[in-house]
């Protein structure tokens, strides 16, 4: 598994000319998207998951079980702890084998872990990627060389192995912060590379020349002329990065170096379900589906955003 | 051109050196007592002392690192008559083996996985992308788009388990993955790799289809293609002589980089299917915290990626005259 | 760790598991206990690799069974189908040891006609050399009994560094005399350990035996791919007339390593091709539900193991220094929830004593009873109030990242919450786990771990390592509770000195209850081993949970 390359790798020679759009971008994009039923559905699902994550404690009060509570009556002690039933009135999505914990509650809390980590990682990556990409692209020369070498170095690293090794070597407290940091450290070069490319081509445009000629300072040029024109690129990259990070966190949890149990996480639930998938497929299908749908929604949304923002499909 | 090559080589060496340094630093400074961790479970205080002496863990970091580098180029002798010839990637105290041997033993298997998967995903990706591009907007395009989105959304471990259940347990079309040497039974050997190839290929093929599609559409829009058509050239010649190469070259080059990445071992796939390759070695070593092995595998993977990168860049500049050598991408 | 969730590892033992029990409680599928026919290849499927091929280095449950196929020792455990499967019987020696009056010298006479796979005769010098290897700091990391019991200079470092050891005498090629530090009635059992394997003098230095075997047993190494495959073939120099224990029915053995636990179970259930000749370790908890059809039930073998899973309480950390607090915890824990987390009633039995029922010396008692083993919250709260902790307190539990252990820990967490104790889980990577909990300065308040006896003929390898206060070491400590009670120590000495094994076992049983009054550990459960051998496998006799390769084989060697 490679850390997000899909959608963020660009053929070496692709033209990066068209990035000019108006600052009224976001409002019109949203409106266009909402008119598209598929995009609207994706957005709705994403919002649903976000709501689940945000209001988790309230939701489980309604469903009746918290994610840590064992329910011995729902599993068969004589059959290795296999759940006694699937969906039921008491446990809406069934229970976890061996412990009897409510799957619905664990999905809801798992959404928290996934979204928190993915969003934090995205924010951090975007920040780093945009800043370094801008610096490298605009100032060129030695700055560019140094930053590009660093990017190359980070991209050459077998990120997955390294992340697992580092995460398992360090103690397990504050694992969430560590996950965010580690994912971001290896993630920002991909965004920075694209921002850099775009910045370099924007640099040549007339309005930038005009701004420089009129005596604007370099930072003004960067932040008021170039950055706004990158908004669409950044938007597209963000919507494509989030699913990648969700997948990464799930993968790391699957391998056992993600969030620390008993905190639930979708990836970790899938990992536990590995042994049970032939007898209790529900335990495997439920988190798997939630995860796949979330990633799918972000990707489709990302595609739609890109087609609205950049109809020629060049970036 | 030569200057470019030399520059790139120098850059490559620098990156590799930095990766080496960084990895070494992180692994040895991160853990509180590397000697104890290297020693493993059945440990005695005497063995710990021996490891400490052997690896010179009392010496300053720089000396240790230089020893490691020296071992890489010349070879190294550990106490107790253990000879580690160049390139000496370290010695695993937990399993009492020279790490280079451990990796060399498993590299062929990983290579088979990588090659098979690469062939499969390129075929699927290029064909799928071409069809999509040519049929842009029509049903075939949408259908393939749906498939690729599906392929990219499902995490590969989920896919691996699902495929295994369907094809091995339920339909019984394929045998359980086992280590069958090629010499013993070529057919079984081949069948064993089908699932791992498919799992890897599906993941990559999805993004390659999209990439191919985008590139082909772009290329077909280009002026030179329009000119060729306007000149009255037959469609298939338009393809073969003008459109295909610029459309597909970026794909092949990126495939080269992804392939190089796979040579470092497809960790999850190998573990799920019990394939005794470099990826599984990495996973097992991380479980046991066998640091010399973890470090060696990390370096090896980085090495492949960096070299792959450079080879790809060079090939690219040779094939595609539009790229000006010297402008970093 | 990490991928531990994919790697099935059901061995919680810190030390070697061997042997059988006096009170057999296993049920065997009707098909697999018959006497095997000669010939064929037995397939063994396993997830984890053997630690070492070198018996002086290796020391864990799985590899010990393997060693019996290729190596022989002076004395060994009887076969699983013997009348007393626990007993020690002579193997390379003509009879059990003759002990001197002061108990310090043990003499053995070697059988004639026993050879290595090289054709060379096995002499007493080879036995002496093999045992001397235990003192080598690099090689002797396996079973420590022989080097702890046999007298030797403090600076002796094994034959490669320090030469021969005078305290092991070899007056002629078939006589060997051991001089011990102090009397030890069970020295025969100590010699049955893998570190007692003979080797030709001068061999095995450095890493020679990492990938090579000098076989004294019925099989020899044919092919070895580390992490993947071990193939054994017959050793032509092994003479069946000199061996009362091993039957060596199959012509060859093939160990496939590195397979995933769930896949192994699938293969055994499916039984395709050579898998009908396959055996593996205990099945996954998920598989038990699928073993309910008559054919599969007929093949399934279930037996209680000799290993205890327990939670050790560090008696040096407040408030666990107060026995009432420890007793309160003992009452509070819902052992049935822990049992379910382990896999339910099929996979384990709740334990209330230190010595499992399968080990000689076991007595039945429960000092902290509760309804259905669900825990007695009221009694626990009462004891806590008496101790002055009516509002509860916080404590830390060390565990490994294995899913079953994590679930057990979570069950305990839930139980203790009910009495106001806030249990924090500290997950330690498997590779450093034993090091951490074995170092008193790094230990936390509690830890979940397991213990198996090295031999089951008595409890002498169970109680002393865990509860003798004089055994507390700075590193590699097994007395997790750090219990140092003079009465207990004295009772241990008395039991160890008894030459009558039955009387000794009675004493151990009484001591078990005496120690449990101090509640230094909470025994959780004794795991069952549930096996699903292939339908063509025979000789699956498991009186104490482990099967014996030496009596196993195939029903019909031509199949598969």
Task: Describe the structure in your own words.
The complex is a heterotrimer of chains A (315), B (329) and C (560). Chain A has 315 residues and is mostly helical. Chain A has a single domain (36-63, 98-313), classed as MetI-like (MetI-like fold, Orthogonal Bundle), CATH 1.10.3720.10. Chain A is 67% helix and 1% strand. Chain A has eleven helices and two strands, in the order H-H-H-E-E-H-H-H-H-H-H-H-H. Chain A has a two-stranded antiparallel ribbon with strand order 1-2. In chain A, a hairpin with a 5-residue loop joins strand 1 (75-76) and strand 2 (82-83). Chain B is mostly helical and 329 residues long. In chain B, 74% of the residues lie in helices and 4% in strands. Chain B has 13 helices and four strands. Chain B has helices spanning 2-30, 34-39, 45-54, 61-73, 99-134, 139-153, 156-170, 186-221, 223-230, 235-263, 267-273, 278-288, 291-319; strands at residues 75-78, 82-85, 91-92, 97-98. The radius of gyration of chain B is 24 Å and the shape is globular. In chain B, 48% of the residues are buried. Among the domains of chain C are: 72-196, D-Maltodextrin-Binding Protein, domain 2, CATH 3.40.190; 304-528, Roll (Dipeptide-binding Protein, domain 3), CATH 3.10.105. Chain C is built from 15 helices and 19 strands. In chain C, strands 13-17-12-16-14-15 form a six-stranded mixed beta sheet. Chain C has a five-stranded mixed beta sheet with strand order 8-9-10-1-11, covered by helices on one side. Chain C has a four-stranded antiparallel beta sheet with strand order 4-5-7-6, with helices on one face. In chain C, strand 8 and strand 9 (229-234) form a beta hairpin. At the A-C interface, strand 1 and helix 6 of A face helix 6, helix 9, helix 11 and strand 15 of C.
């Amino acid at each position: 598994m490679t850390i997000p390359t899909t959608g963020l790798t660009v053929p070496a020679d692709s033209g990066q000319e068209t990035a000019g759009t108006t600052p009224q971008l976001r409002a019109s994009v949203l409106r266009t998207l909402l008119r598209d039923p598929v995009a609207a559905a994706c957005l709705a699902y994403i919002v649903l998951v976000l709501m689940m994550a945000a209001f988790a404690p309230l939701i489980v009060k309604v469903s009746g079980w918290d994610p840590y509570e064992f329910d011995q009556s729902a599993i068969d002690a004589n059959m290795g702890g296999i759940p006694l039933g699937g969906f039921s009135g008491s446990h809406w999505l069934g229970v976890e084998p061996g412990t009897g914990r409510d799957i619905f509650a664990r999905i809801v809390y798992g959404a928290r872990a996934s979204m928190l980590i993915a969003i934090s990682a995205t924010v951090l990556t975007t920040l780093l990627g945009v800043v370094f990409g801008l610096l490298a692209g605009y100032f060129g020369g030695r700055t560019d060389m140094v930053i590009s070498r660093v990017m190359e170095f980070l991209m050459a690293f077998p990120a997955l192995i390294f992340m697992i090794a580092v995460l398992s070597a360090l103690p397990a407290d504050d694992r969430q912060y560590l996950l965010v940091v580690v994912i971001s450290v290896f993630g920002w070069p991909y965004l920075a590379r694209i921002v850099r490319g775009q910045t370099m081509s924007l640099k040549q445009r007339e309005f930038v020349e005009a701004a420089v000629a009129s005596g604007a300072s370099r930072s003004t040029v960067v932040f008021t002329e170039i950055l706004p024109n990158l908004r669409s690129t950044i938007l597209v990259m963000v919507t494509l990065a989030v699913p990648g990070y969700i997948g990464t966190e799930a993968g790391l949890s699957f391998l056992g170096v993600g969030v620390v149990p008993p905190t639930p996480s979708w990836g970790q639930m899938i990992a536990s379900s590995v042994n049970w998938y032939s007898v209790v497929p529900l335990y495997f299908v439920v988190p798997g589906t939630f995860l796949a749908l979330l990633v799918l929604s972000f990707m489709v949304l990302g595609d739609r955003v890109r087609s609205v923002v950049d109809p020629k499909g060049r970036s | 051109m030569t200057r470019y090559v030399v520059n790139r080589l120098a850059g490559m060496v620098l990156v590799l050196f930095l990766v080496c340094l960084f990895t070494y630093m992180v692994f040895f400074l991160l853990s509180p007592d590397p000697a104890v961790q290297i020693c493993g479970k059945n440990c005695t205080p005497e063995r710990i002392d021996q490891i400490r002496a052997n690896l010179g863990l009392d010496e300053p970091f720089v000396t240790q690192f230089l020893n490691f580098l020296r071992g890489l180029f010349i070879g190294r002798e550990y106490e107790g008559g253990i000879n580690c010839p160049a390139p000496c990637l370290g010695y695993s105290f937990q399993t009492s083996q020279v790490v280079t041997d451990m990796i060399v033993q498993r590299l062929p298997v990983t290579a088979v996985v990588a090659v098979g998967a690469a062939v499969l995903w390129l075929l699927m990706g290029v064909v799928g992308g071409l069809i999509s591009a040519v049929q842009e907007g029509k049903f075939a395009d949408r259908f393939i788009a749906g498939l690729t989105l599906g392929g990219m959304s499902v995490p590969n471990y989920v896919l691996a388990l699902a495929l295994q259940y369907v094809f091995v347990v339920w339909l019984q079309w394929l045998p359980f993955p086992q280590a069958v040497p090629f010499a013993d039974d070529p057919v079984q050997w081949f069948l064993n790799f089908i699932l791992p190839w498919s799992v890897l290929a599906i993941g990559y093929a999805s993004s390659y289809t999209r990439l191919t599609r985008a590139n082909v559409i772009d290329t077909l829009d280009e002026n030179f293609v329009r000119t060729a058509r306007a000149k009255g050239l037959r469609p298939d010649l338009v393809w073969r002589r003008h459109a295909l190469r610029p459309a597909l070259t970026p794909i092949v080059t990126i495939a080269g980089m992804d392939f190089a990445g796979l040579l470092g071992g497809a960790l999850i796939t190998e573990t799920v299917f019990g394939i005794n390759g470099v990826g599984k070695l990495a996973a097992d070593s991380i479980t046991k915290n066998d640091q010399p092995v973890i470090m060696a595998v990390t370096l090896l993977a980085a090495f492949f990626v960096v070299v792959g990168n450079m080879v790809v860049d060079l090939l690219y500049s040779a094939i595609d005259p539009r790229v000006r050598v010297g402008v970093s991408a | 760790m990490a991928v531990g969730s994919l790697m099935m590892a059901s061995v919680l033992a810190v030390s070697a598991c061997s042997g059988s029990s006096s009170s057999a409680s296993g049920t065997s599928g009707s098909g697999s206990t018959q006497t095997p026919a000669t010939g064929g290849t037995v397939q063994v499927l396993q997830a984890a690799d053997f630690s070492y091929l070198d018996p002086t280095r290796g020391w864990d449950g799985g590899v010990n069974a393997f060693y019996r196929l290729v190596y022989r020792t002076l004395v060994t455990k009887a076969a699983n189908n013997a009348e007393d499967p626990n007993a020690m019987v002579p193997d390379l020696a003509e009879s059990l040891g003759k002990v001197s009056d002061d108990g310090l010298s043990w003499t053995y006479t070697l059988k004639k006609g026993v050879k290595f796979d090289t054709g060379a005769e096995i002499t007493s010098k080879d036995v002496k050399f093999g045992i001397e290897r235990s003192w080598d700091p690099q090689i002797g990391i396996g079973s420590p009994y022989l080097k702890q019991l046999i007298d030797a200079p403090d600076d002796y470092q094994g034959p490669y560094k320090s030469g021969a050891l005078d305290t092991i005498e070899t007056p002629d090629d078939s006589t060997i005399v051991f001089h011990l530090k102090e009397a030890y009635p069970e020295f025969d059992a100590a010699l049955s350990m893998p570190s007692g394997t003979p080797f030709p003098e001068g061999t095995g230095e450095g890493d020679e035996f990492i990938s090579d075997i000098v076989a004294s047993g019925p099989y020899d190494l044919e092919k070895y791919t580390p992490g993947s495959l071990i193939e054994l073939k017959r050793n032509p120099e092994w003479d069946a007339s000199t061996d009362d224990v091993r039957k060596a029915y199959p012509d060859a053995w093939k160990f496939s390593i590195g397979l995933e636990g769930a896949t192994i179970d699938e293969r055994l259930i499916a039984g395709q091709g050579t898998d009908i000749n396959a055996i593996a370790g205990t099945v996954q908890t998920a598989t038990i539900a699928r073993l309910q059809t008559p054919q599969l039930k007929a093949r399934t073998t279930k037996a209680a193991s000799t290993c205890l899973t327990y939670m050790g309480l560090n008696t040096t950390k407040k408030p666990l220094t107060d026995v009432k607090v420890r007793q309160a915890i003992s009452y509070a824990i819902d052992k049935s929830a822990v049992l379910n987390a382990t896999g339910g009633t099929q996979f384990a039995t709740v334990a209330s004593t230190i010595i499992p029922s399968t080990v000689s010396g076991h007595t039945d008692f429960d000092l902290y009873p509760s309804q259905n083993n669900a825990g007695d919250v009221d009694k626990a709260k009462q004891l806590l109030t008496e101790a002055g902790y009516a509002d509860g307190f916080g404590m830390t539990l060390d565990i490994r990242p294995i899913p079953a252990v994590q679930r057990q820990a979570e069950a305990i967490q839930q139980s203790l919450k009910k009495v106001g104790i806030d249990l924090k889980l500290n997950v330690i990577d498997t590779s450093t786990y034993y090091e951490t909990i074995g170092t008193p300065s790094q230990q936390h308040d509690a830890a979940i771990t397991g213990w198996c006896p090295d031999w089951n003929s008595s409890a002498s390898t169970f109680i002393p390592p865990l509860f003798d206060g004089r055994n507390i070491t700075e590193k590699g400590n097994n007395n997790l509770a750090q219990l140092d009670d003079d009465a207990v120590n004295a009772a241990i000495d008395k039991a160890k000195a008894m030459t009558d094994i039955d009387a000794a076992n009675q004493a151990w049983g009484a001591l078990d209850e005496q120690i449990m009054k101090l509640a230094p550990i909470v025994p959780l459960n004794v795991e069952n081993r549930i096996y699903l051998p292939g339908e063509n496998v025979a000789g699956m006799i498991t009186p104490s949970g482990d099967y014996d390769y030496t009596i196993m084989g195939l029903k019909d060697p031509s199949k598969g």
